[in-house]
């Protein structure tokens, strides 16, 4: 028994690999291209652990995928690999189409070829689990009900459009070819190993460095935040007990405007690492809004609770405290990330704002 995980050196993928191997001896083959977002330092604690096989490679490389399937014969694919940052997708959508759409297509085709050749029992047990986002549903009006699994797809950014396209491919590979797929659409994650281009880690890292905390537009955009460990437990539940061909929304029941998130991060830093120069909120700067910025996302996670008994273990209060503490305790990780392509990215995204 083996899992093939794609994108397992990224934020959620590496949290999933660490969580999985903390609870199971089933080995993991981790295929990751190590783009700017992939960081093997996340998996340093697994060095020398034979249960973790890391392969640097692209999900669009069919020959490599065929070799990995033949060699490891995974009983499931967990597909995390993606270009994942909305702002990057605005500056350069091509990579999103390449990885999220074409890469998912190639992975589906390689999975299908492997699955077709399995004996009946293994064929029935095989799973292709596609990890996706709530952003495929588009933006909600302030008083509209939260996204259920039947909400129409209305993606607004190149990122969410590419993820929507990949969701449709996964769905079609089930309906047309019978591939046993599962899809999860999750809200915004936060937690350890989050690359500091995304809102929460960027605010922590910038505040500690005494740099501005850039809030886009009026900062009243609403997201539903989920601690990454809870996303991992939801994926484990869906992989184990989810009904084939079904979609499960995953969320934290925790809608918050960006401004409140930034204020909460600042308050925790004031408590845990006070600055001699006054409260961290002094660094908040309102900057030009993101083009096409979705106003509100909210997830109705009722289906996964009813069918699989999953609910998040962390509240936002407990999760954000753990997260801020983690960044305070891992200055070396942050320094390592910052010495790479991250710096160039800051220049591209913020210099013209
Ligand atoms: P991430 O950007 O931190 O990590 C992505 C990983 O995929 C990196 O390790 C990168 O090297 C790898 N990768 C990129 N292109 C690749 C390719 N062509 N071949 C192989 N590997 C490649 O992303 P994340 O935040 O960990 O997100 C993981 C998945 O979860 C994505 O599919 C994303 O759409 C989805 N998701 C993310 C969130 C969130 O809040 N971060 C919420 C819901 C869903
Ligand atoms: P982000 O973490 O990029 O996730 P997503 O766009 O996928 O939801 O952004 C979360 C929210 O924070 C989003 O509404 C954009 C906003 N934001 C800022 O206000 N300032 C920033 O510097 C960043 C990176 C995001």
How is this structure best described in words?
The protein is of the alpha/beta class and 353 residues long. It has a domain at 3-193 and 227-253 and 294-313: Rossmann fold. Helix content is 44%, strand content 16%. The protein has helices at residues 11-23, 62-72, 86-91, 94-116, 120-125, 158-177, 199-208, 228-241, 258-272, 302-308, 316-329, 331-338, 342-350; strands at 3-6, 28-32, 52-56, 76-79, 127-133, 181-186, 188-190, 213-216, 222-227, 247-250, 255-257, 284-287. The strands form 3 sheets. The protein has a 7-stranded parallel beta sheet, with helices on both faces. A 3-stranded mixed beta sheet has the order 7-9-11. Helix 6 (158-177) links the parallel strand 5 and strand 6. The mean pLDDT is 96. The structure holds nicotinamide-adenine-dinucleotide (NAD) and thymidine-5'-diphosphate. The site of nicotinamide-adenine-dinucleotide (NAD) has 32 residues, from helix 1, strand 2, helix 4, strand 5 and strand 7.
């Amino acid at each position: 028994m083996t899992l093939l995980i794609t994108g397992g050196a990224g934020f959620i993928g590496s949290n999933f690999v660490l969580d999985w191997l903390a609870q199971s001896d089933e080995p993991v083959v981790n295929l990751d291209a190590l783009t700017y977002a992939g960081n093997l330092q996340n998996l340093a604690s697994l060095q020398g652990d034979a249960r973790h096989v890391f392969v640097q490679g692209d999900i669009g490389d069919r020959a490599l995928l065929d070799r990995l399937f033949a060699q490891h014969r995974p009983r499931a694919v967990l597909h995390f690999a993606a270009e994942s940052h909305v702002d990057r997708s605005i500056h350069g959508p091509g990579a999103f189409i390449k990885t999220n759409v074409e890469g998912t297509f190639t992975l589906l085709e390689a999975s299908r070829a492997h699955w077709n050749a399995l004996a009946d029992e293994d064929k029935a047990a095989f799973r292709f689990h596609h990890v996706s986002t709530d952003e495929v549903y588009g933006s909600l009006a302030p008083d509209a009900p939260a996204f259920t699994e039947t909400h129409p797809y209305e993606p607004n950014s190149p990122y969410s459009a590419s993820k929507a396209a990949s969701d449709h491919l996964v769905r079609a590979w089930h309906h047309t070819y019978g591939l046993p797929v599962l899809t999860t659409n999750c809200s915004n994650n936060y937690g350890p190993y989050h690359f500091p281009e995304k809102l929460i880690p960027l605010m922590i890292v910038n505040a500690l460095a005494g740099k501005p905390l850039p809030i886009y537009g009026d900062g009243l955009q609403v997201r539903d935040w989920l601690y990454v460990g809870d996303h991992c437990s939801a994926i484990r539940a869906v992989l184990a007990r989810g009904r084939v061909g079904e979609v499960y929304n995953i969320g934290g029941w925790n809608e918050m405007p960006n401004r409140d998130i930034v204020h909460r991060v600042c308050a925790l830093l004031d408590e845990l690492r006070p600055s001699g120069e006054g409260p961290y909120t002094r660094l908040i700067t309102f900057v030009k809004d993101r083009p096409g910025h979705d106003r509100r996302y909210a997830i109705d996670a009722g289906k996964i609770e009813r069918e699989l008994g999953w609910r998040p273990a962390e509240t936002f209060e407990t999760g954000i405290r753990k997260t801020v503490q983690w960044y305070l305790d891992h200055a070396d990780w942050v320094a390592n990330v910052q010495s790479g392509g991250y710096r160039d990215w800051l220049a591209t995204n913020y210099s013209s704002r």
